[in-house]
Specification:
The chain has one helix and ten strands. It is mainly β. It has one domain (about 5-145).
Length: about 180
């Protein structure tokens, strides 16, 4: 027989994702997330040690953090004041309850999971590194701008064009 407390302890060591889980019309929950973001419920071990399961339809946003702090994603600077400098798509999300949140999404649309969006929020820090926004929580997504668009093809900055061999000075020609 497996001891019930033993399974909770092993689950706590497996989960290394510290989060603030925001819900609609309820207080946020701080804890350690376990499980995938799609399909079934997301399990969170709270700071008090209880295991809670959250249905994807109840989740407003999941903010990944590295240390404890205040759950102020939607109250302290949820929107960019100026055009962000991080490369990506500057996007504004409107949630089912009318609140708005800005974020930077990657340029590559293939990096966007089917279940939602993983973005970098305004004033990203140890208390708000990345935010996952489920598609079911959003009523509107608006692209506000493209920042630092990469060069198509190689992903590198354009360099100086190569000089045709006949036009190069002889001292720069590679001679064996």
């Amino acid at each position: 027989m497996i001891h019930p407390h033993k399974s909770l302890i092993s689950l706590a060591f497996i989960s290394a994702k510290r989060v603030f889980l925001y819900r609609f019309d309820r207080l946020p929950v701080e804890g350690f997330a376990s499980g995938s973001l799609g399909g079934g419920p997301l399990e969170v071990i709270t700071q008090g040690g209880s295991l809670q399961a959250f249905e994807p339809s109840d989740i407003k946003a999941i903010c990944f953090i590295s240390e404890g702090g205040k759950a102020d994603l939607f109250t302290a600077d949820p929107l960019f004041v100026r055009r962000p400098k991080l490369p990506g798509l500057w996007t504004r999300f409107t949630f089912r309850d009318g609140e708005k949140l800005d974020g930077i999404l990657p340029h590559n649309l293939l990096d966007w999971p089917e279940q939602g969006y993983l973005l970098i929020p305004p004033k990203a820090s140890a208390l708000r590194q990345r935010v996952f926004v489920p598609r079911t929580a959003v009523t509107e997504a608006e692209c506000r701008g493209v920042v630092g668009r990469p060069v198509p093809g190689t992903g590198k900055k354009p360099g100086r064009p190569a000089v045709p061999p006949g036009e190069q000075l002889p001292m720069f020609d590679s001679q064996p």
